[in-house]
Amino acid sequence: MAEKVKPYKHSEASKKEQVTQMFDTISNEYDGLNRVISLGIDVKWRQKVVKIVSQKKPESILDIATGTGDLAINLTATNAKEIIGLDLSNGMLEVGRRKVASKQLDDTISMVVGDSEDLPFENDTFDAITVAFGIRNFENLEKGLTEILRVLKPNGIFVILETSVPTNPIYKFGYNIYSKYVLPTIGKLFSKDKIAYNYLSESASVFPYGEALNNILRKIGFIKVEDRPQTMGVATIYIASKA
């Protein structure tokens, strides 16, 4: 079970409420800071997700925790007829809507406010479902995964892109220094929310990764589960399907 880390430790609000507040606050700065913090490597990771999803030739895709819509926009390369980007934060979605409109993708991409743990869709709706850097923000991981399995079509594909911790001791040491000191410092210097990047670092460090997350996916009922570490293990792509 994932350890429940909240952005604002002295607040009595639920993790879901706190995460929504945090992303609403940092929505306009998120894209720029994210590129700096990840050194731009996250762009390549998303491209790999698109390539994996494209192999299924999906007609309908749900991108959960879509944020400002980077992955949803990238997923138009699959030629899917319908892509829905879903997120709790309307602030993030507003940034995403502007990006979608600027690229004239309104006919393909819809950006909607929604809860991953109570998805507003019928069973067996989507050919593919993706989550990039958002699954660790779920309040109840297993409930969210159960909902994802419910709305995924049989033989559909589910792809997660999430931060992870390198297993190589040298890489792990460097990762720990960066995530514990460098990332929060960048956040404090440039973010409106001084706490946000502490949370993003801490939540990444305690979230299950590799075989631990594979086992959770299998427990929920996903099949053909596999993980593919990226860039020395600082991120991992997980692939699963539905019977």
Describe the structure.
- The protein has a seven-stranded mixed beta sheet, sandwiched between helices.
- 41% of the residues are buried.
- The longest helix has 23 residues, at 15-37.
- The radius of gyration is 17 Å and the shape is globular.
- With 243 residues, the chain is α/β, with parallel strands linked by helices.
- It has helices at residues 15-37, 41-54, 70-74, 90-102, 141-151, 169-190, 196-206, 211-220; strands spanning 60-64, 82-87, 109-113, 126-132, 152-163, 223-230, 235-241.
- Helix 5 links the parallel strand 4 and strand 5.
- It is built from eight helices and seven strands.
Distinctive features:
7 strands, 45% helix, 243 residues, alpha/beta, globular, seven-stranded mixed beta sheet
Strands, helices and their partners?
Elements: H1 15-37, H2 41-54, E1 60-64, H3 70-74, E2 82-87, H4 90-102, E3 109-113, E4 126-132, H5 141-151, E5 152-163, H6 169-190, H7 196-206, H8 211-220, E6 223-230, E7 235-241
Parallel strand pairs: 1-2, 1-4, 2-3, 4-5
Antiparallel strand pairs: 5-7, 6-7
